[in-house]
Specification:
The chain contains 32 helices and no strands. By secondary structure, the protein is mostly helical. Helix 16 crosses helix 17, helix 23 runs antiparallel to helix 24 and helix 25 runs antiparallel to helix 32. The longest helix is centred in the N-terminal third of the chain and has 51 residues.
Amino acid sequence: MLGWIKKKTDTPAPQAPAKAAPPAPGSPLPKEAPKESPEVLAQWQARLAAAAGDDPALLDIARLAPTVALKCAAVEALADEAALKLAEREFRDHDRRVHRIAKQRHDAAVARRVAREKAAGLIDTATALLDETTIPTNRLVELDKAWQALGPSLLDDEQRARFAELSARLTELTTERAERELRARRWLAAAQQALVRVNSAGAQAAADLAEPADPAPLAGAIADARGLLADVPEGAAASTSAGRLQEAIEQALQQAAQAEARLEALRSLPPEPPSSPTAPTALPPPAADTAARKAEAKAEAKAEAKAAQRDRAQAVAPLLEQAEAALAGGNLADTQRLLSRIDSAIDAGSLPDALRARLNALHAEFVRLKGWQSWGGGRARDDLVQEAQTLATATTAALADPVQSAKLPIKQLADAIDDLRKRWKELDRLGGATNQSLWHSFDAALKTCFEPVGAHLDQLKAKRKENLAARQRLLEALEAQIAHHPEADEPGPAPDWREHTRALSHFQTEWRKLGPVEHTVPHKARDALMARMQASVARIEAPLQEARRSAQQGREQLVARANALRDEAAASPHSLPSRDLPGRVRELQEQWQQHARSLPLTRQVENALWSEFKAATDAVFAQRDAAFNARDAELLANQAGREALIARLEALTPDTPAAEFKRTLAEVDAEWRQPVDVPRQQVAPLDARFHRARQTAQNLLAGSAQRIRQARFDALLAKLALCEQREALADAAAPAAVPDVPAVPAAADDLDARWAASAALQPAWDQALLSRWQQPGASVANASAADADAHRSALDGVLLQLEAALNLVSPADLQAARRDMKLRAMKAALEGRNTTPPPSVEALTQAALRHARPSNQQRDRLHAVIAALRNQESGTP
């Protein structure tokens, strides 16, 4: 079973320098080895082999094994059904392959156990059949089918061998008993034929005593009968019918032996001598006429005798044929009657030899069969008496036990009693022998059997009387209902047809509950009861049917009106129906309810009319609902269009161009002014949303110029930051002026790309920054200190002018220079020497931006100037 695992793991595993000893079952694996290494798999295989036959150890391996193959091998090695069931439960929610194997093996184990238990039961049944005197063939067939249904592969060899042995013994025993029974039946048939031959030969011998015939047939029949009596089969020896048949054969042999003895005695007598002719008496010769008259009289007498014989033959021949047919059919009573008529017809006269022989043979056969009938009738009556007494004993025992008495099958018992009496009467009709004592025994036994049947019949009689009384009470209640309410055509208040209907329905329901009249009411009262019931029902049903016809016409008119309303609603499929149409439909429905409450129709008619009426009214409401649904769909579509316009306004963002802002606002305003219908509850919310969205869009449009200005200053600061970073990189690389090292580090390439990708500024700022960007970094960084100071002083002057123009605070160390600058400007203005206008803030800003490598203080002052310019343009103080 585990060979396929070893084949799978042996081939790729490398040779280890030394193999470790396999772990004991239940011991943990070494931690330093990988979980699925060849060494670990080999150890698990050794552990699996060591756990063979130990289900708990195999379950541990199935739980802890590192691979599915090992888990499956462990589950396949399990033998106990309980262990397989535990494995199937544990792996149900994980390891589907392991769970499938565990479930298959558990199901196989359960099927094997159940099959072996059933096989043990079938073996016990077969063993019990060996001890039964009679083995039914159907039991053997059922036993073999049940064994084949178990599946021989699920059974062990011992059970299969045992059942095969028992089956062979049962087959042999059944065959032996069948052959024994066949031999017994053949012997009985041969004995009956031998009895018939002995009786026939004896009757023939008795009929031929006057002229002794050949004794060979009688001797042969006697020899055959004695041979059968000497060789009675084992199966027929214990049979009652065989015993009676032996007695009948022995009696027939005695009679045949007597007839044979008489035949032998007659054949041994000497023949009689021929009689000598007597001498004629001497008489006087008659006269001629006397002789002629005598001859003529003799001829006439002979002719009359022949005519009488012919008439008797013509009268007897059809009766003889009927008697032979009746005897051939076994009807001895008809045969005896016909024989009596034949005897009366012949009236001791002569018959032709052929008819006489047939009549003698018929009499002999009738006597023989009459004897058989007497013998068989006596035996049959004995059997009937025995059956009646057995049935009486069983009935008495059942009546003594309350449990069995309650379960006594009365119907089967009554049928059995009737069958026994019919069979006795049939024996009386056939002329079987009987006596008074047998009849009294038979009748007493059947009377004992009839006691529970009679008690049951008495109960049925009482129940029928109670049922009759209940039916009469129902009829009295119905007749009282009819008498309480006058007829429809009589003067007085209108009948309460609803109450009539309820009373009639209640009567019919309760009448049906009492069961079929022919089985639950005494026979004598049945006709009168049915006539009374039919008359009472007709008195209440006839006017009720007339009222129902009138009510049905009213319902049909309501249906017609409903159909008219349906057609009216269908005439305008694309528009709303009139406002009063639902009210008219509801009025019809109320009228229908009033009609239904006043007089319900029969269920079939009521359901048909109501279905038609409901279909018409439902069609009206369906058309109305369809119109409203179409209108609602249109309103919802308009609402969706309004919401789409609002969504267009809400989709505008600060980054949207001003032109698109203006175009969107114009289009949305034009479409919004178009008159459309929307759901009434959505008019105010939609207007509010639209005005909010439009105001928001207008605000965004108004602030777009400000955003553009702010974006310009953001771009200025971004480019200024790139220049400062470039100058910082140049200053960092300047001290390491080595021929092989570039003046600008590699990060400058990224700054160039960012400079190229930056947004464009206004031309003055862009030109100033471009000039600053293009200054050679190393030459500026390595300039003299005097030049650097002059550069910074120039920048301070520009910044002082910007701070003065923008009303910004200058640093404390430059306050004196700022005052001096203001004084000079005032002096020049007073002296009139300032012929050129002062530089603009724009020019000063351009000059400040052009200066490279400002100090930290100058950088902060420049950023403050830019912030002031931003605030000045945005209007912020």
